[in-house]
Specification:
The complex is a heterodimer of chains A (about 650) and B (about 200). Chain A has helices at about 5-55, 60-75, 105-110, 140-190, 205-240, 250-260, 275-285, 285-305, 330-345, 370-385, 410-420, 460-470, 470-490, 500-505, 505-520, 540-550, 565-570, 595-610, 620-630, and strands at about 80-85, 90-95, 120-125, 130-135, 265-275, 310-315, 320-325, 355-365, 385, 390, 395, 425-435, 435-450, 455-460, 495, 525-530, 555-560, 580, 610-615, 635. Chain A has about 650 residues and is of the alpha/beta class. Chain A has an eight-stranded mixed beta barrel. A five-stranded mixed beta sheet of chain A has the order 6-7-5-8-11, sandwiched between helices. In chain A, strands 2-1-4-3 form a four-stranded antiparallel beta sheet. Chain A is rod-shaped. Chain B has about 200 residues and is of the alpha+beta class. Chain B has helices at about 1-10, 10-25, 35-45, 55, 65-70, 75-90, 175-185, and strands spanning about 50, 75, 100-105, 110-115, 125-130, 135, 145-150. Classes of the chains: A alpha/beta (about 650), B alpha+beta (about 200).
Chain lengths: ~650, ~200
């Protein structure tokens, strides 16, 4: 038995009550018994005296003696009354009654030890002593009444004891109730939720505890806020251009490398170059040049918020790069148009140069290297033309023989079919505990679209179309169903990603949670990963995390790291883990300066006791560097390729 | 006796009576029973003056111990009888032979008490009375009508070993009172046969 305070106090109270009740019961009993003995004795003697007196004139009349004896005997509780002659000891008259057991049990009779009392008196015949009357009282009625009164006393004392016990327990519980609040608070702190408990207990002993807990929660909260602010600051310094606030060259390089290394990479880069920034600086002064750059940066800043998956950067001096993965040329056209207009407005302010600004878009696709994409960008910038004072942006395709832009209608038919007929395939990629390539944290469910030739198109290849065609929500529900089927067959931790669109409206969130609840999965088995880049509103995400948890899942963040400060606001969202965007860990072994930011990130997340997982680990070197940094989990091709269930037993060794 | 004296602070005459009583008990231990009866009867009839309880104690019916009676130098019929009874018991006369007897005095036409001595249980008793100073057999006391007699036997009386009961006995109020007083005065003789 655990030594609970309530239990110990209850035990002490019970013991005390037992002793008190038992003692008072024994004392009461003892007093009653003495009283009973006296009464019995007095009763017997009184009867004897009365008989002795009244029989004196009639001692020679046998019938009278018997009659009077009977009269007394019948009117009281006697075991025996006898009149004996003193001459020869002969019994002149006698009445006796069988003193059968009363209703009191034998053990009680033994315990009470009430013996028949005896009384006697002489009967005189003139001066002569003629006879003697002996009276023996019958203790049975007394014993029975004694037994009943003992029972009543016992019942009453027990009732008192029970009431007292209940009262004490209730009072104690009430007094200890605030302790429960403190425990909840401590548990919340364990969950990285720094609540301040406003309900300070009234119990004097508990007040300092509650105050200390509140103080600790407050300090942790402050500490965490400071830490995440610092991390954010480091990130800004490392990856942002101080002038425009846009990501810098390093950020662009990472994002590009990440984009072309992903599954089925496709997209475009819009490039803008302000020629001769140096001479503008010299001629118009640095202030003028900075103002110019900020004007160009303005639309880019807006796009960055509108399209979190894009990377709108100022890559160097007068060069701006917009990396727009999963976009078609047509989708980008308005952006290029807007840039052109900005440039047209700026043109008069740019001194000297005939062609001061070049704008071009370059496509990239699967199989490209960073180098080819960069050279394609360079080509696009060179091909940009000024015709009659108007900038003509250029466009460079990914390859000469690039497949014709897929027909939107064909995609619609194909994806609708896949979703309604549930022909999507699920592959699984294990996420390993760092350093132990056999211990699986969970499996990530990856969706594939079967091609006509039997090959599988990775999600990245069709997700942009899902989004464009507005099928995101039904796609997510479809993935959820795949996950539920898998969990029904194999109850092992599983993770799925959902699209930012499902998170977009409260109705779609609600529908998703309802669908999740319907499967009534085992708790905490399914992780729902949302894209941290699209994270819009802390309150929405907290609420969604709570709804997911109620529906039986857990919320996790993937592609985390671009805005680490949001974690501060998500402390109480009870997230399951964070997956760090692979752009932060790409080629970590080759670019050691990347480790600085990751270290900061890990330090911050360590405060939250939140597992931190690396995605898309691609080389043994990366893996080693990540594990050295202290990542909790790793996922990527170098460890295990996504595969259909059942997975191959031996993971691909790094 | 020391104890009794401290209790009652007797004056000189009373002290003399008490000393005389002590002497009586001491000197007559070895005598035969008729002599004992004679001495005790004479001693109390001489030492004590008859007076009503109302006069002595201010109560209608007060049973005084021998010591109390001797200190006061006065007694009523019960006190005479009680004093003689306990003195004879002290002198070793068995309880079975002595009975305190309620009688009606036919000449005075009032309630009275005498001490009866039964040589054998069935024999005619000798009467020790304060009205008729001489010890006479019952048959010669036609002026008395016996009503009821008793002695310590068959009565519940506290023994020394059972002091606890003294205060709570409800039986014969007069006897209880008397017994308690006797104990207080240091009367250490068993009041009941076999005790």
């Amino acid at each position: 038995m655990k030594p609970s305070l309530v239990r110990q106090l209850s035990l002490a109270i019970t013991l005390f009550l037992l002793i008190a009740v038992g003692g008072s019961f024994m004392i009461t009993l003892d007093n009653s018994r003495d009283q009973l003995r006296l009464q019995l004795g007095s009763h017997a003697q009184d009867a004897a005296t009365a008989l002795g007196l009244s029989l004196a004139p009639h001692i020679k009349d046998q019938a009278m003696v018997e009659l009077m004896l009977s009269a007394i005997f019948d009117s009281g509780h006697f075991a025996r009354i006898s009149v004996a002659s003193l001459d020869n000891g002969e019994i002149l008259a006698e009445r006796a009654r069988d003193t059968a057991e009363g209703s009191a049990p034998a053990w009680f009779n033994r315990l009470a030890d009430i013996q028949p009392e005896h009384g006697s008196a002489g009967i005189m015949d003139g001066w002569r002593q003629a006879a003697r009357v002996d009276v023996i009282s019958n203790p049975q009625p007394a014993l029975t009444s004694f037994w009943h009164s003992a029972l009543s006393i016992l019942a009453w004392l027990c009732l008192c004891a029970v009431m007292c016990g209940v009262l004490c327990t209730v009072l104690l519980r009430r007094q200890l109730q605030p302790l429960h609040g403190i425990v909840l608070q401590a548990q919340a702190i364990g969950r990285r939720d720094y609540q301040i408990n406003a309900d300070v207990p009234r119990t004097t002993e508990l007040q300092p505890v509650a105050a200390a807990m509140n103080q600790m929660a407050q300090r942790l909260k402050t500490l965490f806020a400071q830490e995440s602010a610092r991390t954010e600051e480091y990130r800004r310094q490392a990856y942002h251009d101080p002038l425009t606030g846009l990501p810098n060259r390093a950020a662009f390089g990472q994002a590009l490398a990440d984009a072309i290394n992903g599954e089925a990479p496709a997209g475009h880069v819009i490039a803008l170059r302000l020629q001769n920034l140096e001479s503008i600086n010299q001629q118009s002064g640095a202030e003028q040049a900075d103002a110019l750059l900020q004007l160009i940066a303005a639309p880019l800043q807006r796009w960055q918020t509108e399209h979190p998956a894009w990377l709108c950067s100022r890559s160097r001096g007068g060069e701006f790069m917009v990396l727009a993965p999963d976009t078609t040329q047509a989708e980008l056209q308005p952006c290029v148009q807007e840039l052109t207009e900005v440039v047209a407005e700026l043109f008069p302010h740019i001194p000297a140069n005939a062609e001061p600004i070049a704008i071009g878009t370059a496509a990239f696709q699967s199989g490209d290297t960073t180098q080819t994409v960069l050279s394609r960008i360079a080509q696009a910038l060179t091909e940009s033309r000024w015709v009659a004072g108007q900038l003509q942006p250029s466009h460079v395709m990914a390859t000469a023989s690039a497949p014709a832009a897929a027909d939107e209608h064909a995609w619609q038919v194909r994806l609708n079919k896949a979703i309604t007929h549930k022909t999507l395939h699920a592959l699984f990629q294990p996420v390993f505990k760092a350093g132990t390539p056999t211990s699986v944290l969970h499996h990530k469910l990856l969706v594939r679209l079967p091609e006509t030739d039997g090959s599988m198109l990775p999600a990245a290849g069709f997700l942009p179309w899902i989004r464009r065609l507005g099928l995101s929500e039904s796609f997510d529900l479809c993935v959820l169903e795949l996950a539920a089927k898998q969990l029904a067959a194999h109850a092992q931790p599983l993770a799925i990603s959902i699209t930012p669109e499902t998170l977009g409206t409260s109705q779609s969130r609600q529908r998703f949670c309802n669908a999740l609840a319907q499967y009534s999965l085992a708790k905490n088995l399914l992780s729902i990963e949302v894209d941290a880049r699209y994270h819009a509103d802390d309150a929405v995400l907290r609420e969604f995390a709570r709804d997911i948890a109620q529906a039986g899942g857990r919320l996790a963040l993937q592609h985390f790291g671009h805005t680490p400060a949001v974690l501060g606001a998500l402390q109480s969202a009870n997230l399951q883990y964070l997956k760090i965007d692979s752009s932060f860990s790409r080629d970590l072994d080759l670019e050691p300066d990347k480790a600085l930011y990751l270290e900061m990130l890990i330090r911050m997340v360590a405060h939250l006791q939140l597992p931190i997982i690396a995605e898309q680990v691609q080389s043994p070197g990366e893996l080693e560097a990540l594990q050295a940094l202290g990542f909790d989990g790793v996922q990527g091709h170098v460890l295990a390729e996504p595969a259909a269930w059942p997975l191959p037993k031996t993971p691909v060794s790094g | 006796m020391q104890q009794a004296e401290i209790l009652h602070e007797p004056d000189r005459a009373a002290r003399k009576r008490l000393q005389a009583w002590n002497a009586l008990i001491d000197q007559h231990q070895q005598e035969n029973t008729p002599a004992k009866l004679e001495s005790v009867n004479r001693f109390f009839n001489a030492q004590l003056v008859f007076a009503d309880d109302m006069v002595i104690w201010g109560e209608t019916d007060y049973w005084a111990t021998p010591v109390e009676s001797l200190i006061n130098g006065a007694a009523d019929c019960e006190d005479f009888t009680i004093a003689k009874y306990f003195s004879l018991r002290k002198l070793g006369v068995p309880d079975e032979q002595l009975r305190l007897t309620y009688v009606k005095s036919l000449t005075l036409d009032q309630a009275h008490m005498v001490l009866s001595f039964y040589p054998t249980p069935l024999s005619e008793p000798l009467i020790l009375d304060n009205l008729v100073r001489q010890i006479l057999p019952a048959s010669q006391r036609s002026d008395l009508l016996p009503v009821y007699s008793f002695n310590a036997q068959g009565l519940w009386l506290p023994g020394k070993a059972d002091n606890r009961r003294v205060g709570s006995s409800q039986k014969l109020p007069q006897w209880r009172d008397l017994a308690r007083k006797m104990l207080d005065e240091g009367f250490d003789m068993p009041l009941r046969n076999g005790q």
